[in-house]
Write a structure and sequence with these properties.
The protein has about 325 residues and is of the alpha+beta class. The protein folds into 3 domains: about 80 residues, Integrase, DNA-binding domain (Double Stranded RNA Binding Domain, 2-Layer Sandwich), CATH 3.30.160.390; about 80 residues; about 140 residues, hpI Integrase, Chain A. Helix content is about 45%, strand content about 10%. Helix 1 links the parallel strand 1 and strand 2. Helix 7 packs across helix 11 and helix 8 packs antiparallel against helix 10. The longest helix is centred in the middle third of the chain and has 20 residues. The chain is globular.
């Protein structure tokens, strides 16, 4: 059962984040209004409503972007909207047109991530584009999934199709979901072997890299607590050494020392070819992890390992302190 109290800014600002998963609290002023608090410190207002026999949780907005009174005002609006009968759309729409509609209204991703998603859709769903979404059958979808090489990619595309057709039902373009009876693709997840010993071996191997640009970029993967795409796109203009910030993200002490030693002679911190930023130095990375004796470790593994050990805190000073503590525990 959710913890109940009268929502006010002081309490909500100081709600502790759970170590894992999420917590739920409930407003005594309007018990229909609740809030998720995630382990990353994200706080979201939501309501619950039984729609067509199913319990549905509807997000109203994130706190503090939406204040408490506005959230309370939106409770009735959101619940009334959820009770509306879905209109049956007689006008036909092709799968390709509907996917564009789905991407515009349902997908919230960064530019690079959205580009990759569109590329995957164009690669795997081409045979469906011209068909009316009402006419697509379970067999059509099975054929699409069977032609995708790699079970991991096939599973991602299966989940995407499930979401697309669920949205088609929600918007009245279909009355059924042809994905419902398709058996879920089983994928054996790769065991990530990075641990404290492995991260120390990796650090030593990176420090032996002769190319200072690559060495610094790979060190920043460890000291920066950020995904590789963000690290490689780092701009000097985004750094504030007076407050030890990178955009709105605090920098660890090791990251600050690393960056301050680099020449600030261009737009990008880590230069690639043609005066553009570094993109994906896979060959150099493979050489380094092989030298470290952990050849299966990816750059994404480093980020996930660090974020798993980092205690998240919405306060930037406390988060920075937690970053420094984690790095000290790993390397000192």
């Amino acid at each position: 059962m959710a913890h109940q109290f009268f929502f006010n800014t002081y309490i909500l600002d100081n709600l502790p984040s759970p170590q894992t998963g999420f917590d739920v609290v409930q407003d005594l002023s309007d018990p229909r209004l609740r809030m998720y608090i995630t382990s990353r410190g994200v706080k979201s207002f939501f309501v619950r409503k039984r729609v067509n026999g199913r319990d549905k949780r509807i997000i109203i907005g994130n706190y503090p972007d939406m204040d408490i009174e506005t959230a309370r005002e939106h409770v009735n609006i959101v619940l009334n909207e959820a009770c509306k009968k879905i209109p049956v759309r007689r006008k036909k729409i092709s799968f390709g047109e509907f996917v564009d509609h789905y991407l515009s209204n349902k997908v919230r991703r960064g530019e690079d991530s959205l580009t990759k998603l569109k590329r995957a859709i164009n690669l795997h769903f081409t045979s469906l584009f011209k068909k009316n979404i009402q006419d697509i059958t379970e067999t059509d979808l099975k054929n699409v999934l069977d032609n995708i090489s790699g079970r991991a990619m096939a599973l991602r595309m299966q989940e995407l199709l499930q979401s697309i057709f669920k949205y088609a039902i929600d918007t009245g373009y279909r009355s059924d979901n042809p994905m419902e009876n398709i058996e879920r693709i089983n994928v054996v997840r790769r065991v990530r072997k990075l641990n404290k010993t492995g991260i120390n071996k990796l650090l030593n191997a990176i420090n032996r890299e002769e190319n200072i640009n690559l060495r610094s970029a790979f060190l920043m993967l460890i000291y920066g607590f950020a995904q590789k795409t963000k690290v490689f796109k780092m701009r000097w203009d985004d750094l504030d050494f007076n407050h030890d910030l990178w955009c709105d993200m605090p920098l660890s002490n090791r990251a600050v020392l690393l960056l301050q030693d680099l020449p600030q002679d261009g737009e990008w911190v880590f230069m690639g070819r043609g005066r553009f930023h570094l993109t994906d130095p896979r060959i150099a990375w493979k050489r380094i992890v092989k030298s470290a004796g952990i050849p299966n470790v990816t750059m994404d593994d480093v980020y996930k390992f660090l974020m798993h050990g980092l205690v998240w805190n919405p306060d930037k000073d406390m988060l920075r302190e937690n970053m420094n503590d984690l790095l000290s525990d790993l390397f000192d």
